[in-house]
Design goal:
This protein is an alpha+beta fold. The chain is built from 7 helices and 15 strands. The longest helix is centred in the middle third of the chain and has 13 residues.
């Protein structure tokens, strides 16, 4: 694929008629960020009926658009020999069991030592370039201090197929979380839109319908603990900090969460004793249809050792 643009066909549905074009196309082509789509439009790389459209703020019309994504520039990311736990790998994708503390892709403040740097070493450069130079192969991500499973695309075909499944919410993603208190009822659904907090742009917050992006988390109690609980969360959507903010919104913040946590005195003492310094959240399961071969794949990861130690200490 070196030197060749990737062609993405995006179908704007009737309900997006009149939206800003960059917004509509970002929704229709979920593997591209809105900023990436905006830049493509401005550069004349988005076509409608064979003619370029160049105004990101113009109104979208239902129908087909063609996005010509330039071949990625040579990656400035450095391949680094960082150990990886690989749950599955073939020529199109791999599933990685990420440890807590590992950033997924380079960004300000973390320009190397990331999962992308490790993947470049592991894969020898065979990562999908659709996501751009900064994050080759990354279809979705989990927070730096969340551990567990995520899938990575090695080819553009896999990237497009996986992104489409994420957009359809057909990928089965489950997390185990240690939370303060015991949820009542013991299972339920949090359907609450999320957006950047107006008070702190580093945080996400539940907002009024129509303001943010729809976010849906299904939860169920797995094990009551001492003033705490082990909870499973199944994600219907995948927004930034979704599990952390949704559980906080129903009164059960994650133990150890440095951003959203509200530690009780007994928890604070235990967390200090165990030197547990992160949100107690682990991506325990991921299931999806192979984007090339069509087989149903599912992978599980036992919760990480530090969370297991905390769970044992909280057990009644």
């Amino acid at each position: 694929m070196a030197g060749e643009a990737s062609i993405i066909s995006a179908e704007v549905p009737a309900e997006a008629d009149g939206w800003r074009l960059d917004r509509a196309l970002a929704a229709a082509a979920p593997l591209l960020s809105r900023e990436r789509v905006k830049a493509l439009i401005s550069s004349g790389a988005v076509l409608r009926d064979g003619a370029p459209v160049r105004d990101p703020a113009s109104k979208a019309r239902p129908g087909s658009y063609e996005l010509r994504v330039p071949a990625p520039a040579p990656a400035h990311n450095v391949a680094q020999d960082i150990p990886l736990v690989v749950a599955y790998e073939d020529e199109h994708l791999l599933v990685v069991d990420k440890p807590a503390g590992l950033v997924v892709h380079p960004a300000a403040g973390n320009l190397d030592g990331t999962l992308v740097n490790a993947l470049l070493h592991h894969c020898g450069g065979s990562l999908s370039g659709i996501g751009g130079v900064a994050r080759p192969g990354i279809v979705h991500r989990i927070d730096k201090d969340t551990s567990g499973l995520l899938v990575v695309a090695k080819t553009d075909r896999a990237h497009e197929g996986l992104a489409a499944q994420f957009a359809r919410h057909s990928i089965d993603r489950r997390y185990h979380a240690l939370v303060a208190g015991t949820p009542r009822p013991s299972e339920g659904t949090v359907d609450a839109p999320l957006a950047r907090s107006t008070a702190n742009r580093q945080k996400m917050a539940v907002v009024e319908p129509g303001r943010g992006k729809r976010a849906v988390t299904h939860y169920r109690l797995l094990q009551p603990l001492r003033a705490a609980a082990l909870v499973e969360c199944r994600l219907e959507t995948g927004r930034t900090h979704q599990v952390r903010v949704h559980l906080l919104s129903i009164g059960h913040p994650l133990l150890g969460d440095p951003v959203y946590g509200r530690p009780r005195p007994e928890h604070r003492k235990l967390l200090d004793e165990l030197k547990f310094r992160r949100q107690a959240l682990h991506a325990v399961h991921i299931g999806f249809k192979h984007p090339v071969f069509g087989a149903n794949l599912a992978f599980d990861s036992p919760i990480s050792a530090d969370m297991q130690e905390l769970l044992s200490a909280l057990s009644v």
